[in-house]
Amino acid sequence: MENIDNLLKDYKLHKKSRIEKHISYPVRFFVPDDKVSWQTNFSEYNPAEFNAPVVLDVNTTWADPQDIRKVTRVLKSFEGEIKFNNKGIPLNPFGRTGLAGRGVLGKWGANFAVDGLITTIHPETGTFQVLTIIRQDTGEMAFPGGMADPGETVFETRNRELAEELSVEKKDLSNHLYEKIVFSGYVDDPRSTDNSWMETTVIHTHIKYEIADRMHLSAGDDAKGYRWADVNKENVGNFYANHGLSLLRALDELLKNDFDFIDNRARKAFEEM
């Protein structure tokens, strides 16, 4: 599918991490597509270092110490073994971003989140719809989700974030038609830097329209609004980070199964995207 191929190309070059500017970040050092890889010589590369005040505050319990030598936890990544520079600082697995430091992210290396991808099929139009929040910081559509707390399972994090952001109850998803972890890996996120980046686990849950229609949703926490968005080319291209790519991948995986609850109109519309 052309749409997936285009989004995947941008994702591999983590264009949003390099080009989109977080509201509190300084201007990023320009990194052309052919200089993204750490393996490619880029002698003039000299990014600014930025660490948000909240990240540097010793009272911020969720942040690592600024001195990497004082970090006692083992740094891990879904993307494999983490590489380090000559100062022992972790390097973004997807390459240069144009900004050093941790930005607004608390952890050196991967900062782990969980996203709840919830879909249904509208009975009148036969199109896939996805439950989205409207982010407070960028105004973009996104999956409800957030940072994983220590000791939580991915499903516990998903359920907590759904409750905090949209008042979704566990019982709303208990009678799902389909549920699967569809992705665990790097996020092309505008908060990411050379040394600190987002990684997520995406849990896809497909429910009956009758259940979706009677959910008592209310925006809260990081969400300033919500909507059941039609899955079409326009909407997929306007998601936060690489959520649009994750959505298309998840639906493609769902459609590989011959489930009788999938409307042929939804299948045809997806295949034509």
Strand content: 15-25%
Question: What's the oligomerization state?
Answer: single chain
Give a count of the beta strands, DSSP E runs of length 2 or more.
11
Coarse morphology: globular
Fraction in helix: 10-25%
CATH topology of the largest domain: Nucleoside Triphosphate Pyrophosphohydrolase
Radius of gyration: 19 Å
Please identify, by name, the CATH architecture of the largest domain. Alpha-Beta Complex
- Mind describing the biggest β-sheet? 7 strands, mixed
CATH class placement of the largest domain: Alpha Beta
CATH superfamily of the largest domain, by name, is Nucleoside Triphosphate Pyrophosphohydrolase
Overview features:
273 residues; alpha+beta; Nucleoside Triphosphate Pyrophosphohydrolase; 2 domains; 7-stranded mixed beta sheet; two-stranded parallel sheet; 9 helices
Describe the structure.
- With 273 residues, the chain is α+β, with helices and mostly antiparallel strands.
- The chain has two domains: 17-109, no CATH class; 110-271, Nucleoside Triphosphate Pyrophosphohydrolase (Alpha-Beta Complex), CATH 3.90.79.
- Helix content is 25%, strand content 25%.
- It is built from nine helices and eleven strands.
- The protein has helices at 2-12, 15-19, 53-56, 154-166, 170-174, 209-213, 233-236, 243-255, 264-271, and strands at 48-51, 83-84, 90-91, 99-103, 109-121, 128-135, 141-142, 145-147, 178-186, 196-206, 223-230.
- The strands form three sheets. Strands 5, 6, 7, 8, 9, 10 and 11 form a seven-stranded mixed beta sheet that branches.
- Helix 1 crosses helix 8.
- The longest helix is centred in the middle third of the chain and has 13 residues, at 154-166.
- The protein is globular.
- It starts with a helix and ends with a helix.
- The model has no long low-confidence stretch (mean pLDDT 93).
